[in-house]
Specification:
By secondary structure, the protein is mainly alpha-helical. It has helices at residues 7-29, 44-71, 75-85. It is rod-shaped and about 90 Å long.
């Protein structure tokens, strides 16, 4: 360590510490039964995808309940109407 702590020395030490803790964090993330490197079950990309899919599913359920309340027909009847309107099947 130099006698006088300079700004360059502080930046160098900060960079080394950042790299050290980044390596420690990545090592800890790669351990455990649910992880497989960067793309394990609990890793950030997978978690983000699952979180977004969960949000879209909840939005779909809420929209279905609101549509059922507004139209008075249940989910199966809504599917029949949808298939009939698109000309896929004549179910009415």
């Amino acid at each position: 360590m130099p006698a006088k702590v300079t700004l360059e020395f502080q930046r160098k030490v900060a960079k080394e510490l950042r790299e050290y803790f980044w390596e420690k964090k990545s090592e800890a993330a790669n351990e455990g039964p649910l992880t497989n490197g960067r793309y394990g079950l609990l890793s950030a990309p997978t978690f983000l995808v699952v979180f977004c899919l969960f949000r879209w599913a909840m939005f779909g359920f809420a929209l279905g309940l609101l549509t059922e309340n507004a139209t008075g027909s249940d989910f199966v009847d809504q599917l029949k109407i949808l298939l009939s309107n698109f000309g896929i099947a004549d179910l009415q």
